[in-house]
Amino acid sequence: MSCFCNNYLFFPAVSFFTVVLNSGVTHKFFSRMIELAYFTQEDFDLLIQWITDEAVLQNWTGSLFSFPLTHKKLEWYIRDANDIQQSDVFIYKAVDTERGATVGHISLGSISKKNRSARISRVLVGNTAERGRGYCTGMIQALLRIGFKDLQLHRISLGVYTTNTSAIRCYERCGFVTEGISRDVLRYGDEYWSLMEMSILEDEWRQMAQRMAA
């Protein structure tokens, strides 16, 4: 996997660059609103603050974690992530570039070089008061750019619970199409949650990017 320096297509006056660290290479994406940078131990406390109850946790991670979220669980979560040579998952925080504040979290995992595919997961706009400001759209577009442009992927998928209508609208705005519904995949209390499978292909992303740049 390699990274390229380019101007981005989704936002005006944006740029992409890589930062070389002792441990390897890290992505950074800048848009008019959002910067994606690697999620590290320094970000644990804020993420834990955002996960206020079990429902929020299950919406964010499904069955990956049990409530409450802890430093130990997050250390396991990032243990094999963000190594440009070896990892099949990259985990990011999202920063509002105007305020310098971390506003969200997102990851790109299940990266297959053979199939040129990956899966977006763990999408979260942390502060409920800041939802509806375009952060979700900015985060998704930033990650699609990394996936399709820099990692040269062909297909990116995601899953979203059918009750999360605001997230579904965000993904549709970013070009994702619905592939189907996996019914009653998660039990929460006395309820069962169904999962909507969505995806976008590289040609679809490029066509959308060209329309937005025109």
Describe the structure in brief.
By secondary structure, the chain is of the alpha+beta class. It contains 6 helices and 9 strands. The two termini are 29 Å apart.
Order of helices and strands: EEEHHHEEEHEHEEH
The total count of strands amounts to 9
Q: Which structural class best describes the helix and strand composition?
A: alpha+beta
**Total of DSSP H or I helical runs spanning 4+ residues:** 6
CATH structural architecture of the domain at 15-153: 3-Layer(aba) Sandwich
Strand order of the largest sheet: 1-2-3-4-5-6-7-9-8
Mean pLDDT over all positions: 86
Which of globular, elongated, flat, extended, rod-shaped describes the shape? globular
- Percent of sequence in beta strands: 35-45%
The CATH topology of the domain at 15-153 is given as Aminopeptidase
CATH class assignment of the domain at 15-153: Alpha Beta
Largest sheet: 9 strands, mixed
Features of this protein?
36% strand, 214 residues, acyltransferase activity, transferring groups other than amino-acyl groups, single chain, GNAT_dom, alpha+beta, Aminopeptidase, Acyl_CoA_acyltransferase, nine-stranded mixed beta sheet, Protein N-acetyltransferase, RimJ/RimL family, transferase, 28% helix
Task: Outline the fold blueprint.
Blueprint (H helix, E strand, L loop, with lengths): L14 E7 L2 E7 L3 E5 L5 H7 L3 H8 L9 H8 L11 E7 L4 E12 L4 E9 L9 H16 L4 E7 L3 H9 L3 E12 L2 E11 H12 L1
Parallel strand pairs: 6-7
Antiparallel strand pairs: 1-2, 2-3, 3-4, 4-5, 5-6, 7-9, 8-9
Keywords: Transferase
InterPro entries: Acyl_CoA_acyltransferase (IPR016181), GNAT_dom (IPR000182)
GO molecular function: acyltransferase activity, transferring groups other than amino-acyl groups
